[in-house]
Amino acid sequence: MEPLLDAKTCIVTGGAQGIGLATAEMMWKHGANIVVADVSEVRPDSTTQFSDRFLHVACDVTEITSMERLFDRAVDKFGAVNVLVNNAGITRDATLSKMTEQQFDEVINVNLKGVWVGTKTAASYMKGSGGGAIVNLSSISGKVGFFGQTNYSAAKAGVVGLTKAAAKEVARYGIRVNAVQPGLIETPMTASLSKEILQEKIREIPLGRPGAADEVANAVLFFASELSSYVTGAVLEVTGGRFM
Ligand SMILES: NC(=O)c1ccc[n+]([C@@H]2O[C@H](COP(=O)([O-])OP(=O)(O)OC[C@H]3O[C@@H](n4cnc5c(N)ncnc54)[C@H](O)[C@@H]3O)[C@@H](O)[C@H]2O)c1
Q: DSSP assignment of 9-76, as one string?
């Protein structure tokens, strides 16, 4: 296997578990220095895979000073940042009538403002070092709108607009910005779905099953590496064909 990210430094926000952790592991296997930035510690059953080329930084993506500290730490340890994966995300599902203002704000803050904070900070660091790649996690919920997710669908649709606007602004510095739109993926975020809801969702998926975190990580790897050197402002659906 040809390493696709040899000696590149990649920051993965929300990389302590789920899609972020799978992405961090895959990038590490492809030769990257990995910085996991999360409000939580990396799940202990996974840390053994990162024997070296690894840094965990406590970071809240909603705070610009926290993000700037993260980039300073990454540059101190590895010399540069080449890739940022804006993956941190939360859900606070409720129908419109039950959703509180706080639930709306929390989701917009982490899932949309967090991506803006990350993209803004990464662009300012990457400008001075010859470019890089930014990969944003949207969701198919942002394409079609999900019942009970007015907050989350709005944030994830916003990530698409943000990705395209930023791609236009930073292309001149050699920075590419792309987004991945996963469908139903088996991670801690979806672990609490009831069997009935899960079956209902699976019926909508042409490939007939939920996706694995690794299958999303493959798409992120594509955007992070030179395999996508002529791709920017793109949105790749990783949904098993659901809502194509
Ligand atoms: N699992 C799915 O089916 C699915 C589908 C579409 C999109 N997504 C998106 O993919 C991304 C990863 O999802 P996942 O399923 O792995 O989620 P997850 O809940 O398993 O992991 C999310 C991680 O983000 C971290 N995080 C939360 N708030 C943070 C903050 N303020 N600052 C830093 N880190 C923070 C959490 O600690 C956690 O480690 C999210 O953006 C999610 O919206 C997931």
A: EEEEETTTSHHHHHHHHHHHHTT-EEEEEESSPPPHHHHTT-SSSEEEEE--TT-HHHHHHHHHHHHH
